[in-house]
Write a structure and sequence with these properties.
By secondary structure, this protein is α/β, with parallel strands linked by helices. The protein contains 9 helices and 13 strands. An 8-stranded mixed sheet has the order 1-8-7-6-5-2-3-4, with helices on both faces. A hairpin with a 5-residue loop joins strand 3 and strand 4. Helix 1 crosses helix 5 and helix 7 packs parallel to helix 9. The radius of gyration is 20 Å and the shape is globular. The protein binds pyridoxal-5'-phosphate (PLP).
Length: 313
């Protein structure tokens, strides 16, 4: 997408970019539209600022797609940004073209900066997802990504943000730059790694995507074969967000901590991402080898059978 270098800022991972943008855009009492389930960094930064995360639904019955009407209904005079995570953590969903257009339209017509968290864009199983801003370069979009996921270098803390070309974002860009100046400079040597990564050979990504796709399918089949568990097929990244049908009064944390104690397998309970504890969602990371995953899903199957049968709780 067209982007002038003076609108790109090198950051310490996507995380720093998100913090710089939210701190520039929102202050105490302001609202930011955030998906649920959500990536908890957003709620943590908003809590620090004193701004309010206003959650919009992504719908498990429609493959974790965002509920566009719900988003529209939540826009208020205090809305300062719309956060879109596509491909998504924790659900592994990617959004179709019409949904992406609708999200851009909400940002454009309401003049709300859209924060496009695209850190998993190169890890969609069917091939890279285009930057959202490429669909409408004049919409108020700030794009974030890094070397952490598709270049397998999370510890290098090398990321970037690109502020869309619209003049509507000029003040925001100035604010972000002022905050970025406060850290004196980015991680200098790692900037060279970004150039090499983005302009060099990316063939490892095709191999990585294929490996992830295979693990996603294994995860989907094995989890759905367990009585009491249902899971949506992910289309990107290395996450699935299955649901276990919990008995009344039992929480997702009871299930996940019980699984950890009984088997040593650690998942994250859905309520850590903002879902209702009674709904029984938990997030699985399927980066382990297929053989290890197979053993893990055996353990989850045995544990779930016992757990849902009763007394172990
Ligand atoms: C959706 C999402 N955004 C941002 C990040 C942070 O990535 P980075 O290492 O680039 O700061 C993560 C890491 O898990 C993530 O899942």
């Amino acid at each position: 997408m067209p982007m002038s270098p003076d609108r790109v800022i090198i950051t310490s991972g996507t995380s720093e970019g998100i913090e710089l943008a939210l701190t520039t855009l929102a202050e105490s009492g302001d609202e930011v539209l955030v998906p649920t389930p959500t990536y908890p960094l957003y709620t943590a930064v908003l809590a620090k600022i004193g701004a309010q995360a206003v959650f919009y639904r992504t719908d498990v019955t429609r493959g974790w797609q965002p509920d566009i009407d719900h988003i529209r209904s939540l826009v208020s005079p205090r809305t300062r940004a719309l956060v879109v995570i596509d491909p998504n953590n924790p659900t592994g969903a990617t959004y179709p073209l019409d949904t992406r257009r609708a999200l851009l339209d909400i940002a454009d017509t309401n003049n709300i900066p859209l924060l496009a968290d695209e850190v998993y864009a190169d890890l969609a199983f069917d091939g890279p997802v285009a930057a959202l801003a490429a669909q409408n370069a004049d919409a108020p979009v700030i794009t974030f990504s890094s070397l952490s996921k598709a270049y397998l270098a999370p510890g290098w803390r090398s990321g970037w943000m690109a502020v869309g070309r619209t003049a509507r974002l000029d003040d925001v860009l100035a604010g972000i730059k002022k905050l970025a100046d406060g850290r004196l400079c980015s991680t200098g040597p790692m900037e060279y790694a970004i150039v090499a990564a983005l302009t060099g050979d990316r063939s490892h990504q095709a191999t990585f995507r294929a490996a992830l796709g295979e693990r996603a399918l294994l995860t989907h089949k094995r989890l759905n074969a367990i009585d009491g568990i249902s899971s949506v097929m992910p289309s990107a990244a290395f996450y699935a967000m299955p649901k276990v049908a919990l008995p009344h009064g039992v929480t997702d944390a009871d299930y996940v901590l019980g699984l950890l104690r009984a088997t040593g397998v650690l998942c994250v309970y859905g309520s850590g991402f903002g879902t209702d504890p009674a709904d029984g969602f938990f997030r699985v990371v399927f980066l382990a080898s297929p053989t290890e995953l197979s053993t893990i899903y055996d353990l989850i199957a045995d544990f779930t059978q016992d757990f849902l049968a009763g007394p172990r709780r």
